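Researcher: Here's my situation. A collaborator sent me these components and asked whether they could plausibly form a single complex. I don't have experimental data yet, so a predicted model of the whole assembly would be a useful starting point for our discussion.
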Amino acid sequence: MVFPLGSLESSKKADLHETISYARYGKILSINRTFFFFQVFIGIVLTLIFLINIEELSKLIAQITSYILNRDIKEGLLFEVVRIYIVKDMGRFPSFYETLLLLIISILMLIFMKFFERISKPLKIYLNYFFFILFISSLYFIFFAYSFPYTLDDFSQLYMVVQVGILSFISSLLSVATAPLIVKPIILLYNLIFIFFVLIYSLIFGIVRYSIFLFILKNYSFLWMANLFFNLGPLLDMIYISGFYSFYLSLISIYINKRLRCWRWLF
Amino acid sequence: MLEVAFLIVFLKAYLVFLFILISLYIIRHFIFTYNRILSEQRVAYHDILDSDFPTVSILIPMHNEEKVAEDILKALINQEYPKEKMEIIPINDHSEDRTKEILERYAENYSFIKPLHRLGDEPRGKTVSLNDALRIAKGEIIVVYDADYLPLKGQIRELVINFIDPDVGAVMGRVIPINTPKNLLTRLLDMERSGGYQVDQQARFNLGLIPQYGGTVGAIRKALLIEMGGFDEKILAEDTEITFRLYINGYEVLYNNKAECYEESPESWQARAKQIRRWSRGHNQVLFKYFFPLWISKKLNFWQKIDGTLLLFVYAVPFLFMLGILDSIALFFLGEMEIFSVFWVFLALIAYNSFGNFASFFQIGLACFLDGVKERIRLLPFFYFIFLFNMWCTSLGALDALLDITARRKPNWDKTERFRGS
């Protein structure tokens, strides 16, 4: 049956466009290449500005964290070339009984995970990963506690440089990821606001996470360091970055998918 | 002490190897996504008008498919393709449910439905069934569907018309899940499928690389298939195997993004885990079989060889990555996390980490965007958990494949559970 679209009222035509999407094959975005390259350029420039100012950025993060934790900051030298600032604090080694208790808990949890069917498989695999690292860490501290190769300063330095590194690359990463969406000049502005928002969030997140990490390592011991590093480290940044990106992309999708002129068809 | 020092060098060297390998995949993700969203697209021969259609045999392997058998038969009966030029061969492979009755009932009413019943001592499995059906098939073109698939009315024509080009050995259509709103898993699988077809397959086709024949919603020349010895019965991923056999013999696989077919995605994590493990096992068998022939072949160009190699390793990489995580944990406790003590290399590692972790989110996100998905794109961060899940299941499959080759085991076909009507 052919719908006589010409005879429909315009409001009904609009309704139909709400329900009938444009064909999903053979279409590409009709982007503005000048704005595309301009945005990528801005992203790269921002990354370079951040990288040049690693020292100041680390100082800002360390100062706010030290204010939250009521500690002092100190200067460190990474790879003998990069001066960074970290929070001055002392970590704690776990006691033997504390380690033994965590070892038993991690073993019991790994066994429990094997037989507990009510947790969905992906969550189970994630928890297994968490308790596996806890198990290895506990085992290590039972046998080689005083050979543990890191101090809180080492951890802080590593954390700081990774955090500032991620902060630096967010602008180029997101500009590369959102530049293909510039089908109208206004989207360039939206993109830049979005990138700026994620940068601010990342800065705040980096500070809060650093405070929590230091609190854990000081009050709950170095035994948790491996888990903090492998489970809540840079991968966690990717979760919130992809979270914001997906939310933003869905908004742009709602905006663009209704507009015929944003697309080019190839047949 | 020398042993420990050697171990540390080895562990670090492995991470460097992994860094290089995964960087290639990251670059590939970005190239494919950009190509799909911004570049000119290559389209299949969709606008050819021809009244002289070739004869087609449609093969549907079935093992206990009473939940879905009728639906696919109805969808195929409704195809806009001359019925005198098509035959449907549903292969009842040792079914213990009502599959046989359903097929017989349809065969009585439609002369072009010719069921093949495989019973008794005959070995069970998809590839063995397909080879049996191939012996009785009369069509010039073989089209294969899994039993849970629902092709749209014009699909057979959309696939078959492309064989007018003599260089085309096989044609692959696009798979779209029909049960997407069912639960979180099906929603995520729909997004993953978008990434795989809308971006990955189409970009490979655009760039003249190696689009994959997927084993279902695909068509292949019968004469060519018979000349090449039919389906390899020792391999679980017969689709990937055929893809590489075709390319090594100088034929190409054409991807038709327009030829859409609906499928039923697994609705439970258990079923999905089994499916991925089987895919990984089969795909890695193909890796062992075709890695060297791919590079020796004179029928492929350099970029096809590169793409083919990356495609062959797709299901081995998660296993290598898992070893990389264990490697990193070992280096962490050995106090050797600073693999490179040079600042700019360390920064490169962070850039790699940022772009690398984001690459698949980028590909899937933009694929969904092209598909017109709106609110559901917001589920993207859940792929972090899927990543761990996939890594685990794929690694088990890779280990299965390793054991197959070392212990000369013959793998058994393990069918994906159906959920329709439940």
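Model: Some features of this prediction you could bring to your collaborator: The domain at 1-422 of chain B is CATH 3.90.550.10 (Spore Coat Polysaccharide Biosynthesis Protein SpsA; Chain A). Chain B touches chain A through 65 residues (CB under 8 Å).
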